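Two entries, shown back to back:
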Amino acid sequence: MELGMIGLGRMGGNMVLRLLKGGHTAVVYARDPAVVETHVKAGARGATSLADLVRRLQPPRTVWMMVPAGKPVEETLRTLLPNLAPDDILIDGGNSYFKDSMRRAEELKSRGIHYLDVGTSGGIWGLKVGYCLMIGGERAAFDRIEPLLRTLAPEDGYFYTGGSGAGHFTKMVHNGIEYGMMQAYAEGFEILKASGFDLDLAGIARLWNQGSVVRSWLLELAQAALGKDPELKQIRGYVEDSGEGRWTVQQAIDTAVAAPIITLSLLQRFRSRKEETFADKLLAALRNEFGGHAVKTKQSG
């Protein structure tokens, strides 16, 4: 199947590579021509602009955006839409706010363009193990792009969640849960470190992944981070948040759902920017391990 991919960062670039390996064809665009050229060498066709990307695709087209939420999505849409035609499919695979996705889907419907919101999880490991995909929008559009989803995801790794906004809503809550899980691991390992025992934290993480009820991929990543730097000396305990945690907490407030763990994990990230603890260092290290998110090192300040 043919698609156009806009955005070749940590996620979009690897998604293209996985699709190419799966026998699909891709036209790719990024603001940096050197990044485009890297993917051309891997078998994709390069585009010099958004309009050029659309021209190089056979109608009805499938265009997938992997750009940051908010203004970048709006700017991409504003430039892209005059070049699209009825029955084209436009996919937002980033972490957009679900209400924005609902609004965009309604606006594009009047143009005859199908809009899918696809919550995408997998980080920098997705190329190897696949991406977990949560899809919202018209069922007929989902059916059309299913060959792409089947290649991108591991077995049982994609799911049609419902109408427009449902995919990004599901991903928002997924990331809120992720905040709470990461915070629990970070606090637990700080308690271990402060115990007075000479504990091998990477070894304990490895142990807990052998049949323990707290085993998980996040714990495997904690083991990897601690194995490389047991004291996490090279990482500052400064933890960013990328929006989904805030939106999840706001949704809990709007629907009167008690969500103290997720809420406090978000507030803890705010606190991390004022002072530094070992728990904050592990949180930062985990984000770097699973998503390639930038960390502040001792050198970078």
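entry 2 starts here
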Amino acid sequence: MSRPKIGLALSSGVGRGWAHIGVLQALDELGLEIDVIAGTSIGALVGGLYLADHMDTLETWARSLNRMRIMRYLDLSVAQGGIFAGKRLARLLTENVGHLAIEHLPKPFTAVATELDTGHEIWLRHGPLVESLQASYALPGVFPPVELDNQRLVDGALVNPVPVSVCRVMGARLVIAVNLNADMLGKGSRRGKRKPREEGGRFLEQLFGRGDDPGLFDVMATALNILQDRLGRSRLAGDPPDVTIAPRVGHIGLLEFDRADELIKEGREAVERSRPFLEEALAVLQN
């Protein structure tokens, strides 16, 4: 018998999403061939670039980030429905990916977004990859909505944080979910000891916080965290994956994009912990 079609659902998770890089690397090393990928928010970004064969570039960039470098990619523009316009990040993506369309990726891919006007869950399976990824990670209040096909789209984490259901519809018989929200609630939002002030310090503190003092982004991201946790539990209870890979990332702040080394390592270790369950699930479906 031929092996079952395998789907990979990559969850939202803001800065913790770099763990997806380690997960994908480890799955490749196991020789586990993924047939379809669905991603939400940062999961869509990593999954899309993986299929576009730009994982090495993404990993190098993620590992290079610190707070000041992050700020260089954020262009202030409060007049467009978000604190940042997002054009610098979009330009960076386009420089690497070009104008690649989703349908030209080597395997089926779906980015999950939310239609702002209706609250509907939108599956982006065709059209420009970069704009689709932008829509999927357009955190309300931070980035403006992305207009695609006469729809105003924002972060897919508002409707489907762990897109297992999307993989099922894409024909996957075995669905592996990478859930970055499994140990999130109540963790990682407190930063511990107050850090020395950095260059551009006061402005950065207002956005990111300092020590135990939350910044604007801390409050917004923690609110999204609560939504993801509650909604994710509900949706996974109704449509559970066959295997869950759950990186232990709750101790890392939602906005700590500068901890890629640790996150990628934990993603790889999470796959190793899940290896017996992956092998068992494949054996059951192939019998």
